[in-house]
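TA notes. Do not distribute before section.
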Amino acid sequence: MRSGSLCILLLLSALASACAKSTTTAEVRKTNESQNQRSKVEQELERRLKTICDGAQGTVGLSVVHIETGKTISINGNSKLPLYSVFKLPLAIAVLKDVEENRLRLDQKIHVTPAEIVPGTPGNTALWLKPVDYPIEKLVEFSIARSDNTSSDKLLQLVGGPLKVTERMRSLGFQNLDIHSTGAEYVKSRQNPNTGAAEDLARLLVQLHQGKILQPAQLSLLMGFMQRATTGLHRLRGDLPSGTLVADKTGSGERDGVTRVAKATNDVGIITLPSGRGHLAMAVLVSNSKLPESAQEKLIADLARAAFDAYSTEPPK
């Protein structure tokens, strides 16, 4: 009787072990299949992004990072290209870091006169036709949300000049963001543009989102200004589903004297994916393209939509 009971127990134990192994094997197989599927999605996305970039008739620096997983796709991502007004994002970070370190105050009033106007859009120029005093917070808003050049140059003065912004970026670990010139200097000479690499810009956005660069109050302020940006609405935002939250900063080069084509069309920002699938940090720098400006903007919109669609198929994060 005891021998029979022992045999039954041994049989049940063997069956349980076999079931456990079967379940484990199935789970491993499911995990491997999932990983392979993700890899296929990313490989297909990279091919799609490269095809779009190949149509630029110029140079494209691109970096896309899924912030929550760190998955990254870069095409020409380490090339330093002209930033134009994208430089105002590192500038705003430098200003807000000085605020955190008590060198500046957001409510500190800054006097601006018409003599200090840096050429830009008519709407922005109209802000400075009379002497005016604005707090630093308002200057940052003008610089980011409206891409105003005059407020940006006043902010550069406050932080100690362009090289101080570069030094701040170096201290944060970004070696390929180089701020050389004020807006006024560049408008006058059209030489020595501020430059940066798409990969550094995407990493900057990732670390901003993760709260590694700015304290919560300053981060919320900056993200709010970027979300309310009124420039480049046909770029990263251009083909995304209605209601998609985007926080971005654009940059636009001057037109070529002969072809009248914009020398650069840029946009960098954070895109919120649907249904809890996380966020994309995306930097696109289009330089020396022969395409008209509208087509350059459409190219950026196509890149953003391709990345959005690919990562929207991923499980929620």
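Switch to the second chain here.
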Amino acid sequence: MTSPNKTSTNKLRPIQVTDRDRELFCALRDYRVLTTVQVCHLFFQSLHRTRKRLAQLWRHGLLARVVRPTRLGEGSSQYLYALSRRGQRILPNLKSQDRVPVSKLGSFSEHSERINDFRICLLLAVRMANDLNLSSWTQGRKLKMVAAPRYPVITQTTPIIPDAMFTLHHQRRAYTYFLEIDRGTTDLGRIAAKCAGYHWLWQQKAPQRRFGIRSFRVLLVTTTQKRLEHVKHKLQNLRAYSSCPDLIACTDSSAVSFSTPEKLFAANWQTISEQGGPVSSCPLPVPSFYRSRQRQEHHLCADQNPDASSKEPPGPADEGCPRLPGGGSEIVQRY
């Protein structure tokens, strides 16, 4: 772990904390830990400029960072950034649990990084889209549910903690999703049990009552195309026991791209049809994008809440830190 020493810090020339720096601190409060590449796509246009500014903030003690080691063949190592004690003083109303202790930065998992990748990609797509709003994003053990399916293939009680729950508003309709990120290390039997649990929860309408939503879909992002084929086979085995075969949509990691975030809203997702076979579709609402116009064919997104307002719910007010849905904030300036 690296940290600036007091001697070098005292010799530094003072810097001005800009609006964008404050927005970065807001993002670190919500995302907790960000990589250099993630910060670049959220707030900058140049990776070189991103590294330079992050290094300045770190040298002045406003950020904490740690080097993440990489495996052979994975390229150079990268830094993970979080708020430091000095940096958190800039944000009002920041609770101690909102900051990741420096001692725990090294244990920040690759799974959490992949969740942040999806969240940032979704946010970038929302910025490019017309009439699309990411109105809420929730993570943590408060999402825990317990499913007790009694299907012939799955009979075990399964605790389910989604990696995230988020809501999109498009054309005055609300669409709620549970996110599952699979890194390829979980046993396929465990994935099948979890998928069966989601089908049981949908039939019992337990999430609808608990979270006050009308309906939901599950998005499962796995690693490779080969792994995706195995997951689809497990979903096909559950088709006979569910009245909503397209409840779970799955894709591989190639759909999560910072350079082309609108790919999340293309027909890159695989669901199970009424006949029991896999079909390509998009479970997300399909808006028009500034960079490309997307057609709404093969679109299976359910009408989940036609009367919901597209207006964002008010978030906690932070001085000098306008909140953005999905954990970011308005970009005030770029340089």
